[in-house]
Amino acid sequence: MGSPLDILIVGGGIGGLTAAIALRARGHAVTVIERDPSWSVYGVGIIQQGNVIRAMTELGVIDDYLAAGVGFDKVAVHAPDGTLVAQVPSKRLVERYPANLGISRPALHEILGRRAKSGGAEVRLGITPLALDDDGDGVDVSFSDGTAARFDIVVGADGLYSETRAKLFPDAPQPAFTGQAVWRYNLPRRAGLDALHVYNGRIGAGLVPMSDALMYMYVTTPEPGNPRYERDGLASVLRAKLAQHAPDIRTLAEGIVDDDGVVYRPLETLLVTGPWHKGRIVLLGDAVHATTPHLGQGAGMAIEDSLVLADEVSRHDDPEAAFTAYRERRFDRCRYIVDLSLAICRGQLGKGPPVDNALATAEMFQRTAEPI
Ligand SMILES: Cc1cc2nc3c(=O)[nH]c(=O)nc-3n(C[C@H](O)[C@H](O)[C@H](O)COP(=O)(O)OP(=O)(O)OC[C@H]3O[C@@H](n4cnc5c(N)ncnc54)[C@H](O)[C@@H]3O)c2cc1C
């Protein structure tokens, strides 16, 4: 059994916060640093599945988490003309809780942040590491606010454009634009919307319940050349993209009126196939495996990373042995999610064979039901 460590986590997002909760629960001292002084997240929602419900149970946040979102037990799949073609049941991995949850990102962030702090993690906002000096026995870190400290290990949970990854592995692959983007917008929850509804097609769409009052719509569009859109006029651009969509999506699109409410994101993908650690510094979440959202599993993989990392760090005395075991347990599963999500994306763009969304979703549910 490893002894309690003094741990720095770089990044206070979903991966960093779940790692903080899991590591504190095992008795380690944890400091989280977050570069954004306001520690804010954008206001649309996120889909999470049974493996995340199971993980949230293990992290001890399940009651607040379920109370803040909308649980559901199936995914409804529609043809491009709106016809319902399949209802994919999803298995409950914790019998008394729903199989899936839609939740707003700010609500999820608030729950994880509150739990990390009440569990004893120190959270420092508005700072970033300037230098990480690993001498083999510990890591000396100097921070952007002029302070410095020494830690036993450092966890880089700083997302897709991770500076920690760039420091450790300057030659690691860079995020690659897929040719597709996603648009998201909050709308009043449609009466009777009690599942994720997916609409297939070259322009894909989905409706996700996330509270009693709200759902969010996501729309995937081909965006050759990765154009930049001005914020002014964003709502009318999105409405125009939906002009030929299924009738119920077209009707809902009339409610997309606020430019500031539109969250636009070019879709990028990344998989680090080499090591995920160097010496006493290790990476997790989007910093090493960023997936397109076609299976709704990106955050799920980051959260599972956190549990496995905490487990391995607490099991081994030697950090490098712990980090190697952690990557060993995580790599195939993360690669599966990144690859299958990208295959769906490429199929939608006509850059690869079409992937049957209902089949892919059913297979993903089976695969992610396996223990981590
Ligand atoms: C359009 C879209 C839709 C998605 N939908 C879903 C979904 O429905 N379900 C799902 O499970 N996943 C979804 N995902 C994926 C999910 O959002 C990510 O996988 C998840 O947020 C990764 O968490 P993370 O903590 O690794 O990184 P991030 O969430 O990016 O957090 C990184 C944090 O580190 C901070 N940071 C960065 N650099 C530094 C630094 N140098 N110093 C200090 N702090 C720093 C950032 O400010 C941020 O707070 C989606 C992704 C996209 C793009």
Automatic annotation (TrEMBL):
<dbReference type="InterPro" id="IPR002938">
    <property type="entry name" value="FAD-bd"/>
</dbReference>
<dbReference type="Pfam" id="PF01494">
    <property type="entry name" value="FAD_binding_3"/>
</dbReference>
<keyword id="KW-0503">Monooxygenase</keyword>
<dbReference type="InterPro" id="IPR050493">
    <property type="entry name" value="FAD-dep_Monooxygenase_BioMet"/>
</dbReference>
<dbReference type="InterPro" id="IPR036188">
    <property type="entry name" value="FAD/NAD-bd_sf"/>
</dbReference>
<dbReference type="GO" id="GO:0004497">
    <property type="term" value="F:monooxygenase activity"/>
</dbReference>
<protein>
    <submittedName>
        <fullName>FAD-dependent oxidoreductase</fullName>
    </submittedName>
</protein>
<dbReference type="GO" id="GO:0071949">
    <property type="term" value="F:FAD binding"/>
</dbReference>
<keyword id="KW-0560">Oxidoreductase</keyword>
<feature type="domain" description="FAD-binding">
    <location>
        <begin position="6"/>
        <end position="339"/>
    </location>
</feature>
